[in-house]
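Session log. Operator J.P. requested a structure for one protein chain; no other inputs attached. Running the standard single-chain path with token output.
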Amino acid sequence: MSDLSKLSVFELSQLISSRDISPVDLYISFSSRIEQYGDKLNCFLEVFDDWESKAKNAAQEISAEGAKSPLHGIPIVIKDLIDFKGKVTTAGSRIMLENYAKKSAEIVNSLESAGAIIVGKTSLVEFAFGAHGVNSSLPPTRNPWDLERIPGGSSSGSAVAVASNLSPLAIGSDTGGSIRMPASFCGVTGFKPSYNKLNTKGVFPLSWSLDTVGPIAKTTKDCAIFVEEVCKYQSENNDNDPFNGFDTTMLDNFDSLLPVRLRIGVPSDEYFSDLEDDVREVFAQSIDLMKSNGAEIVEIDLSWLSIARPINLIISNAEALEVHSKWLASKHENYTYEVLSRLVAGENLYLNNYFSALRAMNYVQKKIENAFEKFDVIACPTTPELPGLIDEYSKENLMKSQKVIGGRIPAFTSLFNVTRQPSLSTRAGFSQSGLPVGIMFTGRFNKD
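Structure written below.
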């Protein structure tokens, strides 16, 4: 049998359903890899010690009654701002080292109802406030394609765990691209569902107007399975039809379900054209490939959408400042420099800046909805640049730099948090130096 750690969730689920493997086999495969590589990559904050017993229980359930869902017996890791009953939720911060969760987050309850096994917590940028993946209070989480480079953030550990075959599936959160950016940098697939598609109760907030939770996995199909099952089992926003008549079993005949010619909107304006050469080349190759397979490429001007970047910054900074106001007054010395500097910057905002940004967000949402009359989906690079070196993000370097290091990373992803649309990043290819390059597809709101 092939190495189980390299298989997708869908493939593992098929093997479990056919009784060719059991959840115990997955425990043996993935736990041994975590033991071998976990400390080299620093992507885990905790691996739960009851994983093996839960795998044995799941194996007995499946043997007696069959698998209750495609996620039954599948190990999943969660970003450590998601509550798991009885475990500490640190949000990557020294401030919350004693923050034991009294109950699990809604998304955890949904996954466990589907039979999934939550096996551990992954590293992140402190309080999920950073695109780079660096948390100076923790050992550096490393990009598996180049251990000296950043993995992207803020769901850094989740993306690294999947990319390194330490887990087949992970949960991240996304306020400005925190699922999609690390997915791009680590060469995996990350999906930000439409705003409020998945319940965020029990997830430590960064910005309540923009926060979403979603999956990081090897394939788009795995992400779809995740959303389908969570929506089926979540107690609030329960939805047995999250894809509006489409379900994951149809992916095998996907071509026959598409319009005669799928219209792909490709931004050609200056804002979306400011790319590193390797990113530009891989993206152009991807567009050519889609065109050769029958897609209609529609060049579009989305320069007006660049306003969504400052909208995202104003809203997230203002709301993060509100979340952290008490700690900033009493525990500011316990924050990392890279996050404290961003929170302090939010103090320069006035209330009317915040309300103006909320009004502008509403305007952008209406305008982008109208723009979709000309195309079916938007395609653009996930990030305009490749992952930089971890050393570039040292406190000393951040303090002396005349520019915001890594400030361009969320240039594209953050726009679609403001529009609240479903947005997915998947690997498009590789740079000349062998680093992954992501392509991002964005659809209409609530048409996940």
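Operator note: The mean pLDDT is 95.
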